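The following record pairs a protein chain with its ligand, magnesium ion.
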Amino acid sequence: MLTFDNIVVAIQGATILRRVTFRIDAGQTVALIGRNGAGKTTVLRTVMGLIGPAGGRLGFEGRDITAMRADQRPGLGIGYAPEDRRLFSAFTVEENIRLPAEVARRPKAEIADTLDRIYSMIPELKEMARRPAGQVSGGQGKIVALGRALMLGTKIILLDEPFQGLAPILAARYGETLKALKATRPDISVLITESNPSLLKPFADRTLIIERGDLSEIMNDEPLVA
Ligand SMILES: Nc1ncnc2c1ncn2[C@@H]1O[C@H](COP(=O)(O)OP(=O)(O)OP(=O)(O)O)[C@@H](O)[C@H]1O
Ligand SMILES: [Mg+2]
């Protein structure tokens, strides 16, 4: 459903992604593992159209979206939880979760329905719904960012290092939330980045490794390109 076909990204003359090629099928959870500066965030930003590739083709559900405007991409069903979360601290948790759908001018009834579904998948979000986002803990903030990604991410969600900086108990809780999400919505694909490969073992159907912009799939998994 998501395909990178020889994607090249260059920033200020430096090549950041080198002919990156992979495919994610519907419902798969794929781990993207790499050290600091390897290019993980760049892969996700390329999906969102926040960086334009210098070469290659980006496909989504059979469509070529390489040149599609960034503001049109969430509407395809792509949700994004950036590394730095970007929650608005003066807004409530619920307002933060609703925001992408409001920006996309989704109908009120649809927003209410989606919100209900997110609350049933992640009940702790309902408990904190009325609190200002500035008052939730770092671990809770990551779960808020996950909820927000699900607002428009009906086909795939991109999670950028959600475990980063979480104490072990909070990381375990986040992991349980992801497992609950996979159990209730097995149709949603997940692309999740991390620097430590062992953290994602329990969730990932496949593992991609990125090193200095070169991507490969680890052995004993599905073929890189089908
Ligand atoms: N806006 C930018 N300007 C210049 N260089 C950039 C920019 N964004 C990314 N880079 C460079 O691109 C490379 C890949 O960065 P990227 O943020 O994708 O890595 P990452 O794997 O997400 O790293 P981290 O684990 O630190 O989040 C790095 O060498 C980084 O310095
Ligand atoms: Mg990053």
